[in-house]
Design goal:
The protein is α/β, with parallel strands linked by helices and 322 residues long. The protein has a single domain, classed as 3-Layer(aba) Sandwich (UDP-N-acetylmuramoyl-L-alanine:D-glutamate ligase). It contains ten helices and 15 strands. A nine-stranded mixed β-sheet has the order 7-6-3-10-11-12-13-14-15, with helices on both faces. A four-stranded mixed β-sheet has the order 5-4-8-9. It is globular.
């Protein structure tokens, strides 16, 4: 399929329900809502606690499934009590979980999240079983990589695994949408398989070797175009939170509007955007239309607490955009 100059399907004229393989992390999120985020050494009382399922890879897979895609998720869960419940949740969302392993000798991935109800949060992650998503696991998933309309990747599994996935994607001419997040390790080698890059302004600055303080809504467009040309990508999207987004392809740079909503928790907003974007592009929408669809999904997600618990379904997205 071709939309503007953006190609993410190697089968022109292919069915409207895109087949997407998402490879990445799965975490259990331990979340506290606090009256305000603590300063160093400060103890904040009167917090509310709850547990939810997250991890960038699984979040994006769930977002893509709820947005209308046919999704295969490749990942790993641990030996804790929540693993079976997590797996059943993925299946309930219609995901193909044949390539989700249950690791007996390690705990699952975990994330500790504090947020203040105003859209700001602190987050730390223990990878756990996500480290078991090795290059060998990528090789075992070669068939679903080859058969997919596109592969969606993030940076919460080992770097060498993502490198192997890109090799397999290039071999089978399967386009990849890479969410370079978190941008803690900038060592991922360039690849012709990376058709689309999705980053926030901090990640964009890190990839470009620029000072993050110098990246704002005015300069982000030029930065997106520079990242696209330097990386050989067909498109680059930089998300800017309440300022919307900018995106660049061969036709030039455009701005995506933000939807004004009452944000209570931004956890998984970026993941929701990525999953919905992949589906919209796979359906043959223009990049501008796909960004709008993804922004609507993301806006709905920040109105709810939690990661996967906040991700909207197709009907809600379409209703919101009307």
């Amino acid at each position: 399929m071709v939309h503007d100059d953006v190609v993410i399907s190697h089968e022109p004229g292919h069915q409207m329900k895109p087949s997407i393989t998402v490879i990445g992390s799965a975490n259990v999120d331990y979340i506290m809502q606090v009256p305000h985020l603590p300063a160093k050494g400060e103890t904040v009382m009167d917090a509310s606690f709850f547990q939810a399922f997250g991890g960038k890879g699984a979040n994006q897979a769930v977002a893509a499934a709820r947005a209308g895609g046919e999704i295969t998720f490749v990942g790993a869960l641990g030996n804790d009590a929540t693993a079976k419940v997590y797996l059943e949740g993925l299946k309930a969302d219609g995901l193909n979980t044949d390539h989700v392993s249950m690791e007996r000798d390690t705990a699952g991935g975990s994330a500790l999240i504090m947020f203040d109800g105003q859209g700001d949060n602190y987050l730390s992650v223990a990878p756990g079983a996500n480290a078991c998503v090795t290059p060998e696991r990528a090789d075992a998933a070669e068939e679903v990589i080859a058969a997919a309309d596109c592969v969606v990747l993030q940076m919460e599994i080992p770097l060498e695994t993502n490198e192997r996935i890109l090799e397999l994607a290039a071999k089978h001419e399967t386009p990849v949408i890479l969410n370079y997040a978190p941008a803690n390790n900038l060592g991922l080698k360039p690849s012709e398989a990376i058709h689309g890059l999705v980053v926030n302004e901090l990640e964009a600055a890190a990839l470009a070797g620029e000072d993050a303080d110098r990246v704002d809504s005015d300069s982000a467009g030029a930065l997106a175009d520079r990242l696209r040309k330097n990386g050989g990508h067909q498109f680059v999207v930089i998300t800017l939170g309440k300022d919307g987004s900018v995106f660049a392809d061969a036709a030039g740079v455009q701005r995506g509007k933000a939807f004004v909503v009452d944000a209570v928790d931004t956890t998984a907003a970026g993941d929701t955007f990525c999953g919905a974007l992949a589906v919209a592009l796979g359906e043959g929408r223009s990049l501008a239309d796909a960004v709008r669809f993804a922004a609507g999904a993301s806006a709905l997600s920040v109105m709810q607490v939690g990661a996967q618990s906040s991700i909207p379904r197709r009907e809600a997205i379409e209703s919101f955009l009307k």
